[in-house]
């Protein structure tokens, strides 16, 4: 066991998988000598060299296209997109190519790549260093989408993602890269994809969150607990395919739920979660489902904390839902 | 004062069909004789194999176009006039090498060993289609033949070929990767990125640029102001050569050298194969709307099949009787494949939900069940295409 933050846990997962399997390679902008702009890949270049820790030219479409080619050959590439906000030049390669390769080739060509990229606000990054584009990828058949909230989960989920035979978007909540520390086993372990975690059991309202917003959800649950509202907080961990059973069981118990996410509200992932749970729990619902999300604006700089669905906006939503 | 200079490199004037600048490699002369300085000396057997494959490609193309006009298949994307550049280039790769196709190279797929029946099944999208009826015709896949999977977006296969080559080198496999694309794709993001990455990584890739002069309705002059498309290699530090793409032996010669260099670790090559798209972009296109028939007729006189046949006849290795016999053989084989494909049922309904992921997740199990229990469509259509 070692105390690690999220950056160190992801680094440990990469190092472990690269030692274990020579087919695992890391590529991206600044991932080599400098170890990434967030230092997530620090030390890998020294240990594994130029051929497996590859500083690429500055073109996201090239990073993902190259990684896809490597995966088709049989490698397990882990490309990094420096910020999720810069993933769009690679959108065609992810959506038209990686996501469809297995299907369009009748199963001949699996495409096991794990695209790591920091997401979310809270670092005063403005439009282009803050966005949460998960819904675009959840909407694309063929992709899996993961977003850990803590170092232990990050290591176990990244190992599972790299070993998974399908393309995975691995979103890293950069707001809590260094803010959360916990004991992480030095030995190998995995956390299966598609399994959510009830991080705080409760009876009155189900709160669904992931990544950095999980901590806002937990703080909000603490605050309303003093008023007698008991929240069941679920960390999705894998966004897609979602752990529907855990969600349905919880909502069947509470009859009320709130979804929290940073991305804009309209057509955000919360919309899909509300639809799914309404379809499956309609007769059990005792209050309208509520989404506490980013506004439908570009991500702002100065007013970042007004944009983000922080505790000050979650708490009233929990109260209203509980008392509806 | 800052000294300024201008480099005057005007676009090469449009050549007359079959006329080429000095840097364009050619082998077969108008009399059917090979230029001894450039002749790859393949031997009669190999030259016959090349020619017969070109003829087979042409016959299949023409028949598929007829089937589309009769409404028996939905779409076809042909290679009329480009047979020499497609077959001459693919023949230059060794068995251990890999090909990343565009969508106009079924001739290369057949050369690599795909049975004609499987290709025709792809045209029908039936239960035996290698892509299980999931894509339009001519979007095939051929992993057993070290041949990639076709997608419609332009140029996306180029960066993938570079990554594939990088991976091969990491595993110390001395292979070359060939990647096909057209002149239109030289304007795409992935062409620039792929060339740039390949130059930086010295990836073992041969960029097979079929310059057929037309990207649907847009002529090559509208794709680029470069003097030639091969000139683009200079900016990326990628070796570039041009060949007469209507000359199968010239194409073979330059591609073979590029394959050997790549496999030896000497880096990538861009091969600009100068040819002409005699047909439409696809069966959905009518080129009479945007180009003069005179131009097409002039290029028809440079037909790569005629040129290769003249070469074989000059060697005494082909006759009219050989031609008749071969054509009859291909036509009979194709007829049988079409009959079989037309008798083969469509893919099973539940197969629509396979291969999205390695295993079906809960939501696809749920949707597959709902689809299977639900109402059926009246027919499986095969409408038009792009």
Describe the structure in your own words:
The complex is a heterodimer of chains A (324) and B (386). In chain A, 36% of the residues lie in helices and 20% in strands. Chain A is of the alpha/beta class and 324 residues long. Chain A folds into two domains: 2-184, Rossmann fold, CATH 3.40.50.970; 197-323, Rossmann fold (3-Layer(aba) Sandwich). In chain A, helix 8 links the parallel strand 10 (205-209) and strand 11 (231-235). Chain A is globular and about 60 Å long. The mean pLDDT of chain A is 98. Chain B is α/β, with parallel strands linked by helices and 386 residues long. Chain B has one domain (24-284, 292-343): Thiamin diphosphate (ThDP)-binding fold, Pyr/PP domains (Rossmann fold). Helix content of chain B is 40%, strand content 10%. In chain B, the strands form three sheets. Chain B has a six-stranded parallel sheet, with helices on both faces. A two-stranded antiparallel ribbon of chain B has the order 3-4. In chain B, a hairpin with a 4-residue loop joins strand 3 (141-142) and strand 4 (147-149). In chain B, helix 4 crosses helix 11. The longest helix of chain B is centred in the N-terminal third of the chain and has 26 residues, at 44-69. The radius of gyration of chain B is 22 Å and the shape is globular. The N and C termini of chain B lie far apart (54 Å). The model of chain B is unreliable at 1-5 (pLDDT under 50). At the A-B interface, helix 3, helix 4 and helix 5 of A face helix 5 and helix 6 of B.
């Amino acid at each position: 066991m070692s105390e690690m933050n999220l950056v160190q846990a992801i680094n440990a997962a990469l190092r472990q998988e690269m030692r274990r399997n020579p087919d695992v390679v890391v590529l991206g902008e600044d991932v080599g000598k400098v170890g990434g702009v967030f230092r997530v890949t620090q030390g890998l270049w020294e240990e594994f060299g130029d051929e497996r820790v590859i500083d690429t030219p500055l073109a996201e479409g090239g990073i993902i296209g190259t990684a896809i080619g490597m995966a088709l050959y049989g490698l397990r590439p882990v490309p990094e997109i420096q910020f999720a906000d810069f993933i769009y030049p690679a959108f065609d390669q992810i959506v038209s190519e990686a996501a469809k390769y297995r299907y369009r080739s009748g199963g001949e060509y699996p495409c096991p790549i794990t695209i790591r990229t920091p997401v979310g606000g809270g670092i005063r990054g403005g439009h282009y260093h803050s966005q949460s584009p998960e819904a675009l990828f959840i909407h694309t058949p063929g992709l899996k989408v993961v977003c850990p909230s803590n170092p232990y989960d990050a290591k176990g989920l990244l190992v599972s993602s790299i070993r998974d035979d399908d393309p995975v978007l691995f979103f890293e909540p950069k707001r809590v890269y260094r803010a959360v520390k916990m004991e992480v086993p030095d030995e190998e372990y995995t956390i299966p994809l598609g399994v959510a975690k009830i991080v705080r059991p409760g009876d009155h309202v189900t709160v669904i969150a992931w990544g950095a917003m999980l901590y806002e959800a937990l703080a909000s649950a603490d605050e309303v607990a003093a008023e007698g509202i008991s929240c069941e907080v679920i960390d999705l961990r894998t966004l897609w395919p979602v752990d529907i059973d855990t969600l349905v069981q919880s909502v069947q118990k509470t009859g009320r739920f709130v979804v929290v996410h940073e991305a804009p509200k309209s057509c955000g992932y919360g919309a899909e979660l509300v639809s799914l749970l309404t379809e499956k729990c309609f007769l059990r619902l005792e209050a309208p489902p509520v989404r506490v999300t980013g506004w439908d604006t570009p991500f702002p700089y100065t007013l970042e904390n007004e944009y983000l669905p922080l505790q000050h906006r979650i708490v009233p939503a929990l109260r209203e839902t509980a008392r509806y | 004062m800052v000294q300024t200079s201008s480099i005057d490199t005007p676009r090469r004037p449009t050549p007359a069909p079959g006329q080429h600048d000095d840097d364009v490699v050619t082998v077969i002369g108008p009399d059917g004789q090979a230029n001894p300085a450039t002749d790859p000396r393949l031997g009669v057997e190999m030259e016959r194999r090349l020619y017969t494959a070109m003829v087979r490609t042409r016959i299949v193309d023409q028949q598929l176009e007829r089937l589309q006009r009769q409404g028996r298949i939905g779409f076809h994307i042909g290679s009329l006039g480009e047979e020499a550049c497609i077959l001459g280039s693919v023949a230059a790769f060794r068995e251990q090498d890999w090909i990343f196709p565009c969508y106009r190279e079924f001739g290369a797929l057949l050369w690599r060993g795909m049975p004609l029946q499987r290709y025709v099944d792809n045209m029908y999208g039936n239960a035996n289609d290698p892509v299980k009826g999931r894509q339009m015709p001519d979007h095939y896949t051929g992993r057993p033949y070290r041949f990639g999977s076709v997608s419609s977006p332009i140029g996306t296969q180029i960066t993938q070929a570079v990554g594939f080559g990088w991976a091969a080198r990491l595993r110390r496999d001395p292979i070359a990767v060939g990647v096909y694309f057209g002149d239109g794709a030289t304007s795409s993001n992935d062409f620039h990125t792929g060339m740039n990455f390949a130059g930086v990584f010295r990836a073992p890739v041969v960029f097979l640029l079929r310059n057929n002069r037309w990207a649907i309705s847009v002529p090559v002059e509208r794709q680029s102001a470069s003097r030639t498309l091969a000139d683009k290699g200079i900016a990326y530090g990628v070796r570039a050569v041009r060949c007469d793409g209507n000359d199968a032996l010239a194409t073979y010669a330059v591609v073979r050298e590029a394959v050997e260099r790549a496999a030896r670790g000497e880096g990538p090559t861009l091969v600009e194969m100068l040819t002409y798209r005699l047909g439409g972009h696809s069966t959905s296109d009518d080129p009479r709307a945007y180009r003069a028939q005179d131009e097409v007729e002039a290029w028809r006189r440079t037909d790569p099949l005629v040129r290769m046949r003249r070469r074989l006849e000059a060697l005494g290795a082909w006759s009219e009787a050989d031609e008749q016999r071969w054509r009859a053989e291909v036509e009979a084989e194709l007829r049988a494949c079409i009959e079989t494909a037309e008798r083969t049922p469509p893919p099973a309904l539940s197969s629509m939900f396979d291969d999205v992921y390695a295993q079906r997740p809960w939501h696809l199990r749920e949707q597959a069940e709902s689809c299977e229990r639900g109402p059926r469509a009246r027919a499986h259509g095969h409408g038009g295409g792009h």
